[in-house]
From TrEMBL:
Aminopeptidase N-like N-terminal domain ranges (all copies): 51-219
Source organism phylogeny: Bacteria, Bacillati, Actinomycetota, Actinomycetes, Pseudonocardiales
Organism: Umezawaea tangerina
Keywords, comma-separated and alphabetical: Hydrolase, Metal-binding, Metalloprotease, Protease, Signal, Zinc
Entry's Gene Ontology molecular function annotations: alanyl aminopeptidase activity; metallopeptidase activity; zinc ion binding
Record PANTHER family: AMINOPEPTIDASE N, PROTEASE M1 ZINC METALLOPROTEASE
Domain Peptidase M1 membrane alanine aminopeptidase: 312-455
UniProt-recorded name of the protein: Aminopeptidase N
UniProt cofactor(s): Zn(2+)
InterPro entries tied to this protein: Aminopeptidase_N-like_N, Aminopeptidase_N-like_N_sf, Peptidase_M1, Peptidase_M1_aminopeptidases, Peptidase_M1_dom, Peptidase_M4/M1_CTD_sf
Catalyzed chemical reaction(s): Release of an N-terminal amino acid, Xaa-|-Yaa- from a peptide, amide or arylamide. Xaa is preferably Ala, but may be most amino acids including Pro (slow action). When a terminal hydrophobic residue is followed by a prolyl residue, the two may be released as an intact Xaa-Pro dipeptide
Length: 503
């Protein structure tokens, strides 16, 4: 993230004019149409740093019409003649620094040509006005926007933003957000952060206003529109808690509430391992129609299927761990996804031990024994799984095994110091696997290349499960070789559904 600077009001006009004019003879160039991520070459854009999104929309559930404006505050990182935004909906107008700009749209890219060159370091105010039906838009045959009988769900990973607001759509460019959506009376709107209020409009609509004050990546920014029961409370730490439950949950309602209402308790537990909770609000949303859960910042979304066999706090522990690993510290590139999923999966093992349903060592031994040496599970490399396997079960389970191997090698003190230092050093930013390995070696004083190469980057089943009393590949080639922890059925079911977020 770039540093946010304040300029005194007296100097602002002259400074801005000088920046817009640019140095004499400077050659401006278009910003790159992609940020350079090898998994998703067209994701993100170059030439500017987004600082804040003000998303102000109207949504009509009956015809899936989404209309309004997104105002983007940004800073140019080069002399810009043109820049891109990632966006799929039909755009009506674009203004840059209050001047009408020309634009074109193709292949999910909104290409903006401002009236004048935008000098490096200058402040940008970009206003995009649009109207469309998001459910009619697709990329490679896939539509991330989910129309429901009472509204819509803008929830997905790695991409959701292009279906409802223009953005620099990559985790390396975080910003703060205001999300304001007006809907017909009787419909609710849930998003990230704090609910700053609702406003009754004269046309029989109500506007819902949400604010995220900490840097937030684009895919974890969400909106859930429909008919919800909203529960508001305050956590023991004094933060607002907003939980929302879709109407008509039926038999799932009790188990879902019994799990999600424990959010403050689970966050308190995880804070003991990962450090202070990094955001301004807490909560969760339970709905149908997504088929997975997602770690939306401050307020994960869960599909009802997680409670088909009763209460399930493991999925809650998983998504809440992402508040540190994925939301506060985001991936530098999508190949670093182990930093999200391996860590959140290991949090489930920690929670399992806490509630007396299986220690982390028992979970490690069981997962290791579950897959024979010739199982394709061992062919997926958590350290660089490829875009097609980004959410493969191995990223979750072998990812968690990697962390237990690290813990076994360096001891609890160094292991948990590494996790807390990682979060503190990269809070509200992004980081890579290489940086994590370097930190683990620094904290432990050990050379760990062999460990990480074996568990993250080498195909095949490692010779022995991690841990002092762990089993060998020869003695644990089948599921029956090691007793199944009581937590395992819930954890396995959780991971099966979480993997459905892959597209």
């Amino acid at each position: 993230m770039s540093m946010r600077r304040k300029i005194t009001v007296g100097a602002a006009t002259a400074c801005t004019l000088a920046l817009l004019a640019g140095p004499a003879g400077a050659a401006a160039a278009p910003g790159a149409p992609g940020i350079g991520d090898p998994y998703y070459p067209n994701s993100g854009n170059g030439g500017y740093d987004a600082l804040h999104y003000d998303i102000r929309l109207n949504y009509q559930p009956s015809n899936d019409n989404l209309s309004g404006t997104t105002t983007i505050l940004a800073k140019a990182t080069q002399d810009l003649s043109r820049f891109n935004l990632d966006f799929l909906l039909n755009v009506q107008s674009v203004r840059v620094n209050n001047k009408v700009a020309s634009f074109t749209q193709q292949g999910g890219e909104l290409v903006v040509d401002p009236k004048a060159t935008l000098a490096k370091g200058s402040d940008l105010t970009v206003v995009v006005t649009y109207s469309d039906s998001p459910s009619t838009k697709s990329v490679d045959g896939y539509t991330a926007w989910k129309k429901t009988p009472t509204g819509a769900l803008a929830i997905d990973e790695p991409d959701i933003a292009p279906w409802w607001y223009p953005s620099n759509n990559h985790p390396t460019d975080k910003a703060t957000f205001d999300v304001s959506v007006a809907v017909p009376d009787g419909v609710e709107v849930i998003s990230n952060g704090r609910l700053t209020g609702t406003t009754k409009q004269i046309n029989g609509w109500t506007r819902w206003n949400w604010r995220s004050t900490k840097p937030q990546n684009t895919y974890s920014t969400f909106v859930s529109i429909g008919q919800f029961e909203i529960r508001q409370s305050t956590s023991p730490s004094g933060l607002p808690v907003v939980n929302a439950y879709a109407e008509g949950l039926g038999e799932f309602e009790g188990a879902a509430k019994a799990s999600v209402e424990r959010t403050p308790e689970i966050l308190e537990f995880e804070s003991g391992f990962f450090g202070p909770y990094p955001f301004e609000a807490q909560g969760g949303v339970v709905t149908g129609g997504i088929g997975f859960a997602l770690e939306n910042q401050t307020r994960p979304n869960y599909d009802t299927a997680f409670w088909r066999r009763g209460g399930n706090t493991y999925v809650v522990a998983h998504e809440l761990a992402h508040q540190w690993f994925g939301d506060s510290v985001s991936v530098h590139g999508w190949k670093d996804i182990w930093l999200n999923e391996g860590f959140a999966s290991y949090a489930e093992w920690l929670w399992s031990e806490h509630v007396g349903e299986g220690t982390a060592q028992e979970n490690s031994d069981y997962v290791y024994s579950l897959y024979p040496a010739d199982d394709p599970f061992w062919d997926v490399l958590p350290g660089d799984p490829g875009a097609a396997n980004q959410f493969d079960g191995a990223v979750y389970d072998r990812g968690a095994l990697t962390l237990h191997a690290l813990r076994s090698a360096v001891g609890d003190e160094a292991f948990f110091t590494t996790l807390q230092t990682w979060v503190a050093q990269h809070q509200y930013s992004d980081a890579s696997i290489d940086q994590f390995i370097a930190l683990a070696e620094q904290v432990s004083g050990q050379q760990l290349d062999d460990l990480f190469t074996t568990w993250l980057f080498t195909k095949g089943k490692p010779a022995q499960a991690p841990g002092t009393f762990s089993v060998s590949a020869d003695s644990a080639s089948a599921k029956t070789a090691v007793a199944e922890p009581k937590s395992r059925q819930k954890i396995a079911e959780t991971h099966e559904l979480l993997a459905k977020s892959e597209r």
